[in-house]
Amino acid sequence: MAAKSNIFFCKECGYESSKWMGQCPGCKEWNTFVEEPVVKKGSSYVKKKATDREPSKLSDISLETEDRTNTGIEEFDRVLGGGIVSGSLVLVGGDPGIGKSTLLLQVCKNLANMGKSVLYVSGEESLKQIKLRANRIGEIGESFSLLCETDLDIIEEVIKKYKPEVVVIDSIQTMYRSDISSAPGSVSQVRESTNTLMQLAKGLSISIFVVGHVTKEGVVAGPRVLEHMVDTVLYFEGDRHATYRVLRGVKNRFGSTNEIGVFEMMEYGLKEVKNPSEFMLMGRPENASGSVITCSVEGTRPILLEIQALVARTNFGFPRRTSAGTDANRVNLLMAVLEKRAGLQINDCDAYVNITGGLKINEPALDLGIIMAVVSSYKNRAVDSEMVVFGEVGLSGEIRSVSNIEQRIAECEKLGFTSCILPQSALVSITGKTKMKLIGVSNISEAIGFI
């Protein structure tokens, strides 16, 4: 007979305990335990034998052919590492209304038009709602099928019966197992549902995409073990009211974890932005103070960005420091370096820093660009519009070198920029390889002298 009991789960790592604890012994996080009812079914334990299972030697495993499928969306394939890997389990997270379902529906459309069998399982929308969205993005082939269901036992039977090549689950928080008494979206339901999908993906060599809701902190809702179980974790970022969206890989067992894909939201769906630098610099002001062009590298892709800063005398006793698109604590640190090492009296000024285009970049190479933008606004002097600035700034005011110097310079030269301020230590590796005017600086005092 089934016995009911309550067990406490850690939302971060899935650690189980019979009683509530303030700190999780597994991940050492505080206040992460939640109580959920669990039904334990009585059954006799049968010891399994390993007579049919033998270990394999590493030399016997062949890697001659890697089974990948291109989706027809180059930005999506770039983030995945070159296409969809057969038997992979991919988690796609993002804010509500950001475009997760639209992106995956476009991927399904392309795969179905290539003749691939695709199953789209929705637990949030009706068939008519999905049909309306599908009509907006274009005609979809006959090999595309829809299923509106939240019972994972039924979904599992359908997948085993029809054996589609690609499955989309939208979303994992709406799925439930009937043998687990807790509500859909709870720790135990999400964990067991993901485990079932993982076994289906590996056992049947089916590529499964799972949509995950995010919390107000911006992480996927549910236990942290969810991200550990899947092969790839993608985050769809951006302001829902802005034009651009960024697909970022934070975990990828089949490729780089730093790649990003840039999309533009249109009436008919998401459009690829194959040259993000050109789009990010469109409409930038000419000869305006507080505007500086810098170069960031995401994965293997260099992207030119515009950093804008506004510095003004404060009307209050405590100045405001606000940033959009970059870490606010990093901006405060750089302003402290300016005061201490460059002698600028900006402790009585409000400062606002913005990275245009809606991107969120935290690369250290943006440090020098932020400092130049702040000083430009403070002095009300414009930085040369044909100049690019990048470099990491230390607490002593020194300018440190950054990676991928040649790729950054090549991107700047391709878009017509004529000069570049960069770390002095990086000049050796790039001198003679470009026609741009390169200006090496070793500290922030030298850099702000060009304003």
Number of strands: 23
Low-confidence parts lasting 5 or more residues at pLDDT below 50? 41-45
Share of helical residues: 25-40%
Adjacency order of strands in the biggest sheet: 8-7-9-10-6-11-12-13-14
User: What coarse outline follows from CA principal-axis ratios?
Assistant: globular
Mean pLDDT over the residues: 87
Query: Alpha-carbon distance between the termini?
Result: 79 Å
Quickly count the helices: 12
Radius of gyration: 26 Å
The major beta sheet can be summarized as: 9 strands, mixed
Helix and strand content put the structural class at alpha/beta
**Binned strand content:** 25-35%
Report on this structure.
The chain is α/β, with parallel strands linked by helices and 451 residues long. 26% of the residues lie in helices and 28% in strands. The protein has 12 helices and 23 strands. Helix 3 (127-137) links the parallel strand 7 (118-122) and strand 8. Helix 4 packs parallel to helix 5 (187-204). Mean pLDDT is 87; it is low at 41-45.
Structure keywords:
single chain; 451 residues; alpha/beta; nine-stranded mixed β-sheet; four-stranded mixed β-sheet; 26% helix; 28% strand; globular
Write the layout of secondary structure elements.
Blueprint: E1 3-10, E2 16-17, E3 33-40, E4 68-69, H1 74-80, E5 84-85, E6 89-94, H2 100-113, E7 118-122, H3 127-137, E8 144-148, H4 152-162, E9 166-170, H5 187-204, E10 207-213, H6 225-229, E11 232-237, E12 244-252, E13 260-266, E14 269-272, H7 276-280, E15 291-298, E16 301-313, E17 321-324, H8 328-341, E18 349-355, H9 367-379, E19 387-389, E20 392-393, E21 399-400, H10 405-414, E22 419-423, H11 427-430, E23 437-441, H12 444-448
Helix pairs in contact: 4-5, 8-9
